[in-house]
Every structure is written in C-alpha cells, then in structure tokens.
Amino acid sequence: MLGVRSLLLLWGLVTPCHGLLETVGTLARIDKDELGKAIQNSLVGGPILQNVLGTVTSLNQGLLGSGGLLGGGGLLSYGGVFGVVEELSGLKIEEMTLPKVLLKLLPGFGVQVDLHTKVGLHGSGPLGGLLQLAVEVNVSSRVALGVSSRGTPILILKRCSTLLGHISLLSGLLPAPLFGVVEQTLFKVLPGLLCPVVDSVLGVVNELLGSVLSLVPLGALGSMEFSLATLPLISNQYIELDINPIVKGVAGDIIDFPKPPKPVKVPPKEDHTSQVTVPLYLFNTVFGLLQTNGALDIDITPELVPRNVPLTTTDLAALLPEALGMLPAGQHLLLSLRVKEAPSVSLQNKKATISIPAALHVQSYVPTGTPEALFELKVVMTLSAQLAPSATKLHLSLSLERLSAKLASSYSRTFDVSRLEEWLSDVVRAAYVPKLNVALDVGIPLPKVLNVNFANAVLEVIENAVVLTVTS
C-alpha cells in the first residue's frame, strides 16, 4: 500500500467564519472530494507514473549494479559479505498500480492525503532467470502552503519518506539472506523515486489553484480579474476561498461601484457539494458598466417593432385624443431612451429584479425630415432576471414586469401619462428587452477553482447574493 499518511497542507490556522461573507468578493467552498479528484486525475493518463517506470537501474549499473551495492567496496561486492550475488542486476520498476487517493481535511490545520499502490520490480536473479518482485509502499509527505510570485496559493513539499509494506517474490529465486538486502536497498532508493510523484501531483494541483487568479474578458465592457482576498480556510469538509473580483474598464481603469452595506449570510453547505456565492456587487458592476458604456441606450423606430405594436402619430393620438389629437397624422415615432444613472439590482425573496430609470424622448418624423420633439417622460422599468449557470459564467435573461412613467415636459398641455404605460410596455418588450439580453450575453464570470464545473448547479437567490451549489 502506498499511503501518503500525512500530506499536510499548512493552509490556515482558523476554520471558516460562521456563514458570513464580510467582503464583497465571491465566496467559494470547495468540497474535499474535489481536491481528491484533482489529485487522482493528476495521476491518470499523464506522465507522472510513467516517468517512474524503468528508473531503478539499468544492467550492471546503479542500485544493484557495479556502481551500487554490488560494486567495489559495496555491501555485496567481492569484498563484502555476499560476493556470490554479482549476477543480481538490472532491477527496474516495470509496473506501478494507479494509486488510490484517500483524503481527510484537518480543520484549522491542513489536509491528510493517503495514496495506495503496488510497485512491480523486474530484474535478473542471482541464479539466473527472471526475478519479479511486488512491493507495497507507504509514502509520507509533509507539504506547506506558500504564496507564489503571482499571489496564488502554492503547495510546497517539505518532507517525504517511504515505508515499505509486504514484499512478494512473484517469480525467480532469491536466497533468504539476500531478501533482507534487497529490502534494505529499496528502503534507501524508493524515496528518491516515488517522492517526485508527490511533487509532480502538487505541481498539477498548484496549476489548478493558480487558475483562481485569472483575467476574464467582459466583451466590449472590459475585464474581470480574480484574486485571493485572504488565505484559504479549512473545515472538516471543505476549503473556503474568499475571492476578490477586480473589474476593469476597457482602458484598464478599476471600476468601483457601491458595495452592500452589510455582510452576506451564506447558507450552510451540504456534504459532498461545492458552493460559489456571487454577490450583489458583481450584478451592480455589470449593469453599471453597461450604463457607462451606453449599452442601455436605444433609439426605437418602427423598424424595430412588429407590426402589431403601433408606432405612428396616428396611433399615439388615438391613445390620448384630448391631448395629442392635433398631431399630424401618419408620421413615424422615434423613441429615444437614455439611461443616465446606473440601474439598481435587488437579490432577495428568491428573486432577482433589476430597476432601470430612464429618460424617454418621444419625437415624430418623416423619412426625409428632422425629428420634432413631442414630449419627454421619466420612466422606470422593472425587470425580472432569469438566472442560468454555465461552466464559467452566470447568465442573465430579462423580462419586463412593469413600467411606470411620469411626464417631464410636453409641447402641449400636460396629460395623464398612465394611459400610455401599457403601450410603452409593449414597445419596450418588443424592442428594448431583446437589446438588453444581447448586451447581457457577457454574463457574470465565475472563478475557476480546481476545475469545478457549476453548469448543472442548483441556484438559490438569497439576500444580496446568488448561491450556486453543485454535487461533487
């Protein structure tokens, strides 16, 4: 059995906080099963185990050859105790069973990882013929957590040793006095051969941990970069990462939007699941970027709406004949909608809602003429958001719930704007909401942690955050 008895990640001396996300960052809780998968996958199909094979000796060299224990002055040389074993040579690792990974998190301390495998060695026996041995090995490694030059967590191998279990002679002849010598030799040599396996595994896991610090494009809006806000924390079931999202505009300037006034209360995590919590701040940031980039503005003309949505002066006059009955008939309408302040996002009561305030200028025009101002409205559009995760993003799709309007100015006398709200709602649903959904195609990026895929996550809207939970 190859058992990494104590692969200790000195990763934090306190356990995770009691369900509160104090910062505005993205809170990720990665189940211990995911770390076990990362270690196991690093051993499957890759060069880590293959590099060990054939490395013990070559014929008449190294471990049991002329330069090793059988060489001049060595324990088994002609000047040694058993000069008769000159022919025992060429012992190599020919087989290595894929290690079985067992992992245990140690709250407030680190991680214990056990790997179990069997090593097969082939060589030439002292009495001729093929010699085959099977050895069960325990490898004990101690690993400390450091910080890379990029500011990511990195696992550093501090100490590694091996413990041999049962040694089986599968074929060939090996006199009893030599059996102990072979065992002693393996004790001496195998750590140098098998400890690099642990080091290589850590290298793969470090690459996955390093992917937390990644730059994610936000289309024409800019980019988002994740970094660790604090050192990781460990409970008995998961590793908790407080990940700080840094949003930058196209020019590289850091975008800073208002933070929530109080911490997010994160629900408890079930065993064998992983969580990522997307805070309200990121929703506000994305919509703030859309607003400052003009992506929420639109000019609505008849070409943008279906025929069943009226957009002429004749249709408008019919809605308010007493106020707008004097409009010239048959002219097109131009609705210029401008969003001059950032929308507000509400995450509560299991629902995501976006409120967009806007100025709506209603104008009439003929194809070859200049638009003529009719009136200006202050409108507030309330939209519900349907949320859907993918492997890398949280996607939003909006639908209009309601629209309210107030008259800001008019070319004629004042009138009751509420009689236009239903018509305006139809126009917004037909022309404006599709544009919003195209702009929101950038989504909200999710941090990459050990390649956990949240595409099939269960989604829950809590107060000031959205929680995605996936079964490990």
TrEMBL record:
**Residue intervals of the Lipid-binding serum glycoprotein C-terminal domain:** 270-470
Q: Which domain of life is it from?
A: Eukaryota
Q: What start and end residues bound the annotated signal peptide? A: 1-19
Which key words tag this protein in UniProt?
Signal
**SMART domains (alphabetical):** BPI1, BPI2
Q: Where is the Lipid-binding serum glycoprotein N-terminal domain?
A: 29-271
For whether the record's keyword set contains Signal, the answer is: yes
- Tell me which family the UniProt entry assigns to this protein: Belongs to the BPI/LBP/Plunc superfamily. BPI/LBP family.
Q: What is this protein called?
A: BPI fold-containing family B member 3
Which organism is the protein's source?
Echinops telfairi (Lesser hedgehog tenrec)
